[in-house]
Amino acid sequence: MPKLIIDGLEVEVPEGTNVLEAAKKLGIVIPHFCYHSAMGAVGACRLCAMKFVEGPVKGVQVSCMIKAQDGMVVETADPDAMRARRMVIEWLMTNHPHDCPVCDEGGMCLLQDYTIAGGHGIRRYKGKKRTYISQYLGEFIEQEMNRCIQCYRCHRFYRDYAGGDDFGTKRIANRTFFGRFKDGWLESEFAGNLADVCPTGVFTDKTYHFRARAWELETAPSVCPHCSLGCNLIPGAKLRELLVIKARENLKVNGWFICDRGRFGYRFASRPDRPRKFTLNGQEKSRDEATKAAVGIISDAVAKYGPGSVALAGSPRTSLENNFALKKLASLLNTGNICFSIDPLRDRKERRAISLLDAADSRSLQDVAFSDFIIVVGTDPVNEAPMLALMMRQASLKGARTAVIDPRPVKLPFDFTHIPARPEEFAEKLTGLLNEAAGDSKNPLIICGTNIPGIDAIDACSEAAGRLNCGLFYTLSSANSFGAAVLAGEGPDFEDILSGIESGGIRVLIALESDPLGRYSGEERASRALKKLDSLIVMDYLPTETVNAANALFPTAAYAEMDGIFINNEGRAQCFSRAYIPGIPVNYMGPKLKPPELHPPREFSPEVPGRSFPAWEYLGDIAREMGLDCCEMETLSAIRASLSHDPRFAAIAGLYPESEGALITAGPVDRLQAYGPFPAGEKPDAGEGLKPVDRLLLYATDLTFGTEEISVYSDKTQLRAPEPYVMINREDAKELGLNDGDWVKVASGSLGISCALKTSASCAKGAAFAPRLTGFDAAALSGKTIRITRERV
Amino acid sequence: MFQPLLTKNFHYGRPASLKEYEAAGGYEGLRAALKMTPDDVIKAVIDSGLRGRGGAGFPTGRKWSLTDRKSPGQRYFIVNADEMEPGTFKDRFLMERDPHQVIEGLLISGYATDAGKGYIFIRYEYTEAARALETAVQEAKGAGFIGKNILGSGFSMEISVHRSAGRYECGEETALMNALEGKRANPRSKPPYPASKGFRMRPTTINNAETVADVPHIIKMGGSAWKTLAAYEGGAGTKLYGISGRVKNPGLFELPTGTPLKEIIETHGGGMQDGYSFKACLPGGASTPIITPNNLNVPMDFDTVSKIGSRMGTGCVTVFDDTCCIVRAMINNLLFFTRESCGWCTPCRDGLPFVYDILQRIEAGVAEMDELNVLDENCETIYSNSFCAFAPGAVDPVRSMLRLFKDEVEEHIKLKRCPCLN
Q1: Can you list the positions of beta strands (E) in A259-395?
Q2: Closest Cβ–Cβ partner in B184, B189, B340 for A43
Q3: ipTM of the complex
Q4: Residue A529 belongs to domain spanning
Q5: Which residues, in sequence order, are bridge partners of residue A403?
Q6: What is the pTM of this model?
Q7: Alpha helices of B222-350 — where are they, by DSSP H?
Q8: Whether A124 contacts chain B with CB within 8 A
Q9: DSSP state at residue A198
Q10: Tens digits of per-residue pLDDT, A162-181?
Q11: CATH classification of B10-225, choosing from 1.10.10.10, 3.40.50.300, 3.40.50.11540, 3.50.50.60?
Q12: Which among B169, B343, B361 has the least Cβ separation from residue A174?
C-alpha cells in the first residue's frame, strides 16, 4: 500500500491506484473528463494535471496516468499545473456552444463545473466554432454533437465496456465524431448509459428532453423494479411526474451502470390511464369509503363461508413490506390462502432456487465480473437480466471463458461457447462441461435461470456448485422475487388458489400489485375462475386487466413513490426511498390537456389530486377497520421491526438507503415437490406416429423489451419490443417446409396464435420459442407441444 | 572518396531487381548475420552507433536489446515506412529504388530480435514503393530469403507489406500498431513499451525503413568500421539527406553523418536559386525548429543539431528563401498538423486549431499584440502537456519562430498586414 503526500496531506491507497483517485480519497477533486472509475484512465483529455515535486516522477503530469507510489509529493495547486488545467478547459471550450440554457445537461454538466473549477473565464479564441450534423440515434438517446469535447468516454463505454459495435469514433482531429455509421437506433441494450457517461450534453436522455432542469428534480436513492438484479437508481420527478432515471453507484451490484429497460421503463408511472381513484364497482369513492367497502366484502365472506373463503395474492414486483403486510393480514384473518406470485411454475422453481442458495456459494453481480469460468444454464442474460450480460463481459475481458447451455440462440456482447440443449438435457450437459473444463479455474461460476430450466436443472446447478466449490447465481423473475418466495415459504401457490376459486371455496380475492387476468399463463382459465368470485379487491398502480375487473380498487404507490425494500436474486435486501409524492402530474393540468376526466379538481385543496399510498397502508387500514390487532402493520418501521423478528430477515434491521444492502439467506422454503418442467397433467404426450418436428415443445421467453411486467406499460421501451414471432431451428423449419419470415400458425389443441417464423441455426432442435409479448398469447402455449403450419394470408 | 552504401543501386532509376541487388553484394549481410548469433548481431549494431533514422534518434542496438526475447510465443518486427513528415522523401527513394535493401535489413533485424513475422507498414500514398516492395518480397521468397528455415539456418520469418489507410499519426509507433491491428490510429500509453507488449500485445521492435536498410551494411562492414564513415568524431555511418525549397539542385543525397548543413545546402543542393537568398530552414521536416543562417555550420546529426535548439528529425531540409513569410510558412505547417491530429488528446486536437487561428490572424493583420502572449502560452502548454510527440513537434517550429523571428511577427501586427506582400 503506497503512501504519498498530496497538498501536504498524507494518504495511503491500495497498490495500483492512480494519483487522481488518491487525491479524491483526500477530498481533493481535480477536474477530469476521460477518466472514469469503471473505464479507467487513458490520458486523453489531459485535464487532471498536477505538479509532482518529489518521487519517481517529476514535473507537471496528468495524474490519472500515474500510479501512486511511495515517496511521491504532489501539489495540485501549483501554478504550472493550474495553467495546464486552465488551458485544457480553454481548448475544450473553443468549440463548445454556449447553449447551456437550452441544454438538458445544464445544471448537472461536468463541463460547466470543471470550467469553473479549471479557472477559465474569458474567451480568447476568436475563430469559428466547429459544427457537426448530429445523428438520429433512436428514441432513447438524443445526440447533439456540437457540444462534444471528445473525451472518448462514450466510445469506451459503448464499445469496450458494453461490447456494442454499431457506435464508435469516426474521423480525426477536431472533426472527430462519435456516432453510428448512419442514423438509426443504437442497438446495445446499455446505450442509455451514454447519457450518464457523457460529461456534457452530447448524449442526453431523449425521454426527458426539455422536461425539467436538474435542480428541479425530486430525487431519492432507489432500486430498479424491472428485473431481479436490483440495480441501483436515482429516479427524478418534477411536479408529480416521474421524468428520468439515472444509474446510482453500488459496487456490490450494478457498479456504475444500468440497462435501458431500467432507464427507460419508468414511464408506466405517469401514464394517463394509471389508476388514480379509489373505486367500488366502477364508482369513485374516498379512501375511507373504499376501505369500509373492502372490509364489508371481507367480513361478509368470512361470516358466510369462513376465513378460508378469502384468498390473497401478493406479488414479486412489490416491496417486501407490502407483501409482509399482506401476509400479516392473512394471518390476522386466519386464512392460509395466500401466495406471492401468479405464475405457479416460476414460483415453485424460484422457491426451490432460493432455498438452495447459501452464503458460501451465493455471488453478487459484481462478483460475476471477477469469475474466470462461467457456465450459464438456461438463461438468456441480455433478455432476462441485462446487467448480468454486462458483468459477464467484464469477466470475459479479464480472460474468463463462458459457456451457455441454452436451447435459444443466445446473444452476448462477447465471445462464448453456445451449447444448444433442451431443458431436460441441462443437467447432463452441465456435468459434462464441468468435468471437461472447470479444473483449472479459480473462480468458477454457475448461472442458472428459473424460466426455462426445470427443477432438476436448478438442483443440478446447486449440487455442482457445492461439489466443485463454485459460485452460484440464479436469475429470478422480478425485483422482489426472492423476498416474495421467502414469505411464501411452504405455503400454497396460485395453482392452489385458482383451484380453490374454481371449487367455490374461495369467494374473495385480494390481488396486491398482481395481475392474474393479464399475466397468468392460462388466461382463459383465470378469467373463468375470477368471474366466479363474489368480489375482487385490487391494489395496483398499473392499468392492468385485473384492475379493470376489480370490484374494489385501491391505487397504490409505485417504487419511486414510496419507501421499501426489494430483495434481489442474490438475496441482497436493498432499501429504496420515496422520491416524490404520487398524484396526478401537474403537467396534465397544463394547456395541452390530456383527456378531461384526468383533469384534477379545479378547487384548491391541501390534498394532492389523485394521491395514492403504499399498499401496506391500505392493508393496515383494513385490519384496523376490522378490529384486528394491526400494530405490526401500522407504520413502515413497525413492519420492518416485525419482519426482522424472523431470523432470516434479521439483517434488514440495519438497512439504510444508499448502503450496499444486506444479505438474506432463505433456508429451505420450497415444498419439495417432485416437479418437472411441465405442470402436472400437461406433460406432452409421446405423440405416437408423429414426426419430431410435428410436436415441437414451445417455451415462452422473455425479452429485454416488451415482456417484463412493468416496463410493458412504458411507451418508450415498448418501441423496442419486436413484432410477435416464433423461433425454431433452421433444419426443423426445413423439414416442415417453412422459411424464415413465413407467416405461420402455432397451434396446440384448441389454442392457436399466428405470427412470423424466425429460424436460427443455433437454436436447439425440437424446441420452439415465442416471446411473452403483450397481446400475443405465447404464455398460454408455454410447455405444450405445438404444430407449426404455414398460414395463408 | 566516399562510397555510397544505401544509394549505390539508385542509378537504375527503377527498383533494383533481386539479380541486380545481389550483384552489388546484396543479401551478403543476411548470409553473414545468419552465421552469427543474434546477440553478436545486436552487438555489431550497438558498436556501429546506429541511431533511429525516423527522427527521434534512439540508439537502434539498445532498442533491440530491450526487446523481450525470452517469453515464448510470437514476436514481431515492424518497418515503419509511413513516411509522412512534410518535406521528407528519403524512405520513398529507398523503397522505390532498392526495395531488397529494406527487406534484407528487416530479415537481419528479425533474426537479431527473434521475430518470426515482419511487417512493412507503408504510407498510403506510396503506391509505387509498395508495389516495388511487394514484388521484391515475392522475389526474395522465391530465392529462399523469406520463409521457413532461411538459407538452412533454422531461422524462419514471414514478411508482409501493409499499406496504410493513410494518416500522419500512423507514423507514431504505437499508433502504427493500433492501425496494423485494425483499430483507430491513436497512440497508446507507455508503459507497456512495444518491446514487451506491442503489436497484438506481443514483444515488437519497430524501426524506420532507413534504419533497417543500414543494417546489412553494418553487418557486412562490421559495426566499428561502419561507424567511422561519419563526417565527424561523434557521428556514425552514412545518412540520407534531402533538400527541398528554392535551391538549384533539390534532391536526396547519401552523405557521411554529420555533414554540415551549409555543405548540404550549398554544395549538394547547389545553393540558392538565382535572385533568392537563404532566410531559414527546417532541418528535418515540418516538426523541427527553424535554423537561421548564423547556425548553418552545424553538423547534421542528432546531438549537434539539438545543441543549437533544433532537431535533426529526418534529415530532409526544407529551405525558406527571403521572399517567404515565416508566418505563412508556419500557417502552412499548422494547417497540416491541425488536419492530421488523430483527435485523441485535447492539446493537439483543440490546441493546434487555436494556434493556427492566431497565426492566421497575425498574417491577415487583424491580430492584437497581446495575442502573441496567448500564442506563446498555447504553444508552451501544448508542448508540455500532450499525449504523444505529435503536438510538441507541431508547435516546436512556431516556438522557434517566436524566438527567432519575433520582429517579423510583430511587424505583421504593427503594419496590420504581411510585410512580405508588397
Answers
A1: 278-280, 283-285, 310-313, 338-339, 373-377
A2: B189
A3: 0.94
A4: 278-343+483-663
A5: A375, A417
A6: 0.94
A7: 223-227, 261-263, 302-307, 326-340, 346
A8: yes
A9: -
A10: 999 999 999 999 999 999 99
A11: 3.40.50.11540
A12: B343
